[in-house]
Structure formats: C-alpha cells, structure tokens
Design brief:
By secondary structure, the chain is mainly alpha-helical. It has helices at residues 3-8, 27-38, 56-66, 71-82, 109-112, 114-117, 138-148, 150-156, 158-176, 190-193, 202-205, 232-247, 262-282, 288-304, 341-352, 387-399, 403-419, 440-451, 460-466; strands at residues 54-55, 94-95, 186-187, 259-260, 305-306, 311-312, 315-316, 321-322, 385-386, 425-426, 433-434. It contains 19 helices and 11 strands.
C-alpha cells in the first residue's frame, strides 16, 4: 500500500459501547493528508483553490517532503515538471492543467501564449506553460529524492533521465541570464525570484508603467484577503512586465526590470553541488560543477555583499547599484559551504538581530526587515514568515555549526505549521495564519523536518554540501 494511504486511512474497528474521543492525528499524518488532497495524479498543486496548477519551485520543495512518503510519487512530481521544459533549457514557473477553467487563475494560458509567443525559444507544443522561471531548487530536490530510495531511482533511470534536463536548465541560466555581465543570474520579473511582492522590487518596479486595471481580472482576490495580497498598482506592473516579455518572444535582453538576487543565485550554486552528485551517480562525470558553485559564491560576495547592512542585497542591473532593502533573500546564501566564515558569522548576527529578530521577537524569520518602512506583517512577502525560506535558513544555520539556533528554528517551524493548519505564510510576531491553509510546501517541508537527524547535526541538504554520496 502507498505510504500516504497508510498514513491517511483510518483502520476499521469493531463497534464498542464506549468510545472515548480519538486522539488527534499526528502532525505527520496531517501533513500527508494535505499532500494527498493536493495531488492531481501527476503533480501536486500548492493549493486547490488559489493555485490550481503546477508551480516550479513549489514542486521541488514538495518533492523533498514527498520522498519520505512515496519516493515514486516524488520522482513523478519532478518528471512532470521537467517534461514541460523549453528547448532553450528554461523550466517554466507554471505548468497549466488543461482541465482547470481559464478564469480560475490569472495570468492564464491564453495570456502567456507559450506555444505561439514562445515558439522561437522552444516552448513545448503539447502543454501550456508560463514563459518565466523560478529559483533553481530542482537539482537539490532530485538528488534528495534519489537518496530516499536509490534502488527504485536506478531501476527507473530517474537520475539518468533528469540529468541532461537539469544540466540544460543550469546552462540556460548561466549563459542566457547573466544580464549584468558579472557572473550572476538576473531575474526579469519579480515572480521569477519567487518572493513576488518583496519591497526589494519597489525601486526597479517604479520604472514600469502598470497595465490598465480594466485589462485583467485578479483571480487571487477570490481566495485571499486583499490586505494579504499585492496591491492593484503592483499587480498592474507585474502584468505589464510579463506582457512585454511575452511580446518580445521571451527573449532575454536587458529591459526595465533586471535584478541580481542573492537567494536565486545561492540556490543555483547549491544546485550545482547537487548536480555534481547527480552527474557522478548517472555516469556523466562533470568535475567542473563544484568549481562553478564556488565561482557563483565568489560572485555573490563580490557583487551583492553589503558590509554596512551585514547581509547580501539585490542589485538593480539597469541602475547599476545595490537596492537598499533588507529582504530574507539576502540571508539565504548562508546555505553555501564555501561562504567565507566571517560573512557566515555576520549573517547569523543579522538574522538574530533587530532586523529579523530570530530567537527574540520572532519565532520564524520574516520575509522583510522588521524595521523597514515597507514592513507589513500580513502582506504577501512584505513581512510575513514563509516556511520554504525558513527551511533553507535552518539548513544554513546547521551547516555553519549553529546547531542550537537551527534546533530552535526547526521546533518553531513544526509548531507553527501544525498550529496554523499548514498556512501559506504567517505573521512573524503572532504566527497568525495568512494566505491559504493546507499549503503544499508547508506540509512537505514539515515532513522533511520530522524525518531529518537533528541530534547528529545533519540533514539531507548539509550532506549534499559536505559531499556525502
């Protein structure tokens, strides 16, 4: 029987005269139930209502947790996503489910027009996708999924089939997206970075004329409170950027919005370490990948480190300057093993200091500076705490020897996930649920935290970074 079914199915029992209240289901069972409810047969939606399609980095995080329940389903999750890859190597940020009505989500397939507008870039003809990308967590996920059941993975040829697609994905980013010429990848839309509504984007977005409000209808407001979601002005700018990129045939050229982001590039570096493991396992030896990861780390330090801020900042490529906003993205490079020790120590001080408050005023790390002018504890990526970024920081703390802080963050994440109903994000002060509940990666990363080995100070991600095979 499938492990998920074992966890979510209550065994039948005989009738008894007195039946005291049943114990509430465990956190593991509840998380498994979320993933079972969001499963479509080939992939897992982040949320049945608000996000009814397959999202790129969501599926990577979901596969990391899903591997503990069903390695086969976790492999299928990633294979479904990779099957929608474009010929130029990009992995689109959304793979659309054709059975979902067009008006259930915006921007819908008829906005992106991937099979026509993306023809020159090699968009697939048999599936509709968006034309932008999301952070490259996929090689990390693929390697962790393989480790969950190496025998099954080898029997199915999982890594052998995934490797060329992942290698093409990284090549696309490294060769087509170095818009600043400094060795780092640029994102061309806030949705690509994944932290859609961060105040870090406000300055470069101010150059973008918003699309007219009458030209689109926001489906997200049907499922989320307006005070939790991006403003209409910001959404209009997102739509304008996406439409302009589409109308250029998804060509990667400098435009109004091009930003070098710390988290995006740190995840690419971390994924290069993972891809080196995958290459070794699949027989496609590529010794240059770890060196490439170290070059990316060095470029991060050279171009994005700000000593005064005590963290990494985003770089506005068009303006040629750092953006003076502290977002959680600037802490994520903590997960890199070749980060200089003094910088890692500074990042730890910053994450525990007044701007992010970990271990003091907050239980989970907020998405934006607590002292920033744009801080909002409830609005999408402008202050609330998210589980995927906290999972990455827990791994980074542990990697750099901060075991006590990592253990405390792990405990806080597990408590908050259960208490909030696996919320999409939470108020960093009160842990009040925001967005939707029953969110895919919150449930999945809860499962991963439940299955890791904190007593030994290790977990799957630190094993990748330290070179375990």
């Amino acid at each position: 029987m499938d492990r998920i079914a074992q966890l979510t199915t209550r065994p039948a029992g005989r009738e008894i005269a007195y039946d005291p209240a049943a114990a509430p289901p465990s956190l593991q069972v509840r998380a498994a139930q979320v993933l079972e409810g969001n499963w479509t047969g080939k992939s897992t939606v982040p949320s049945r209502g608000l996000y009814p399609h397959q999202w790129s980095w969501d599926s990577a995080f979901i596969a990391i947790g899903l591997r503990h329940l069903s390695p086969l389903r976790a492999q299928t999750e990633l294979e479904t996503l990779l099957a929608a890859q474009w010929a130029d190597g990009r992995i689109p940020h959304i793979v659309f489910n054709p059975s979902v009505p067009l008006d259930a989500y915006f921007p819908s397939p008829d906005f992106w027009r991937s099979s026509t507008a993306g023809r020159t870039a090699g968009a697939p003809r048999t599936v509709q996708t968006s034309g932008i990308v999301q952070p490259p967590v996929h090689a990390l996920a693929a390697w962790l999924v393989h480790l969950a059941d190496p025998g099954l993975s080898r029997a199915r040829g999982f890594l052998a089939r995934a490797y060329p697609r992942l290698a093409a994905w990284h090549a696309y980013l490294l060769h087509r997206r170095d818009l600043g010429g400094g060795g780092l990848v640029s994102v061309v839309h806030p949705w690509e970075q994944g932290m859609d509504n961060s105040p870090c984007w406000d300055r470069p977005l101010s150059r973008v004329a918003p699309a007219p409000a009458r030209s689109f209808r926001r489906a997200d407001l049907d499922h989320g409170a307006p005070e939790d979601r991006p403003t209409d002005l910001d959404y209009g700018r997102y739509v304008r950027l996406a439409a302009d990129y589409r109308d250029r045939g998804y060509a990667d050229v400098p435009a109004d919005f091009a930003v070098e982001d710390p988290a995006f590039n740190a995840l690419l570096a971390a994924s290069e370490y993972a891809l080196a493991r995958i290459a070794h396992e699949s027989g496609a030896r590529d010794p240059a990948r770890e060196a490439r990861a170290e070059r990316l780390t060095a470029a991060l330090v050279e171009r994005l480190w700000d000593p005064a801020a005590g963290m990494f900042l985003c770089r506005d490529v068009r303006a040629g300057e750092l953006i003076p906003e502290r977002g959680v993205s600037g802490l994520v490079p903590l997960l890199l093993p070749s980060l200089p020790g003094d910088l890692a120590a500074t990042l730890v001080r910053t994450v525990c200091g007044p701007h992010f408050g970990l271990g003091g005023t907050t239980r989970l790390v907020p998405s934006y500076d607590l002292l920033g002018d744009a801080f909002d504890p409830h609005r999408y990526w402008r202050g609330p705490a998210w589980f995927n970024t906290n999972w990455l920081l827990e791994r980074g703390l542990r990697l750099h020897g901060e075991r006590g802080r990592a253990d405390a963050l792990r405990k806080g994440m597990l408590h908050t996930a259960g208490a909030s109903g696996f919320a999409e994000y939470v108020d960093p002060y009160t842990a009040q649920a925001c967005g939707v509940t029953g969110f895919g990666w919150t449930a999945a990363l809860t499962l991963d935290l439940l299955h890791d080995r904190p007593a030994r100070g290790r977990n799957g991600l630190t094993a990748i970074m330290e070179g375990d095979r």
